[in-house]
Design brief:
Layout (H helix, E strand, L loop, with lengths): L1 E6 L2 E6 L3 E6 L9 E6 L3 E4 L4 E4 L10 H9 L7 H13 L6 E3 L8 E4 L8 E3 L2 H4 L1 E7 L38 H5 L6
């Protein structure tokens, strides 16, 4: 995933290699039995006064990132579970060829920044339009999943041992598994 931001200093961009997996399990009740996951790390973009992070989480109750990516690559608009399964099979069969797509604005992941990069309690949502995000693109690759976000956020691996207090409730940002918004590569 590559994210581009138009700034007064010119176009800035950042990328991260994610792994998207979709598999069918056992359907229970009304459930389709579809399972999916995304692994990797948030995209980090260095802007003049801040670091922008494009998270592994969507900003609303819509389809998850691991459903949005295969659909975008194949030009599909529906996010139904059976469509995700068939799309993933098509992506696997075409993996030798590069597939690229821009995510529609409605399918952009959540974006945040920190008022103080050394303090996780200063996290705040970012309106992509307000800071100039112009494009979120995805493409297939055989590159390894990105690692190393802890170099930018040294406190992230130990977030659950930190005494950040019960008042840490950033508006609009899920805090249940805060670390996994930024990386699935770090040990708990």
């Amino acid at each position: 995933m590559t994210v581009e931001v138009k700034t007064p200093q010119g176009l800035k961009s950042g990328s991260s290699v994610l792994q998207v997996e979709v598999w069918r399990g056992i359907p229970i009740g009304d459930s389709s039995g579809l399972n999916s996951s995304v692994s990797g790390e948030a995209v980090a973009i260095e802007l003049k006064d801040t670091l922008l992070f494009v998270l592994l989480q969507m900003p609303n109750a819509g389809p998850p990132l691991q459903a949005v990516v295969p659909h975008a690559l194949l030009g599909r608009r529906s996010h139904n579970p059976d469509g995700v399964m068939s799309d993933t099979a098509v992506l696997r069969s075409n993996f030798d060829g590069k597939m690229k797509a821009d995510l529609p604005r409605t399918d952009w992941p959540m974006m945040v920044r920190f008022r103080n990069i050394n303090d996780p309690t200063t996290v705040e949502l970012v309106d992509p339009a307000a800071i100039g995000v112009s494009r979120v693109a995805v493409e297939t690759t055989s590159d390894a999943v990105t690692t190393g976000i802890e170099k930018k956020l040294p406190w992230l691996p130990k977030i659950y041992q930190m005494d950040i207090g019960p008042e840490f409730r950033p508006t609009g940002i899920p805090v249940g598994d805060f670390k996994r918004l930024f990386s699935t590569q770090l040990d708990n």
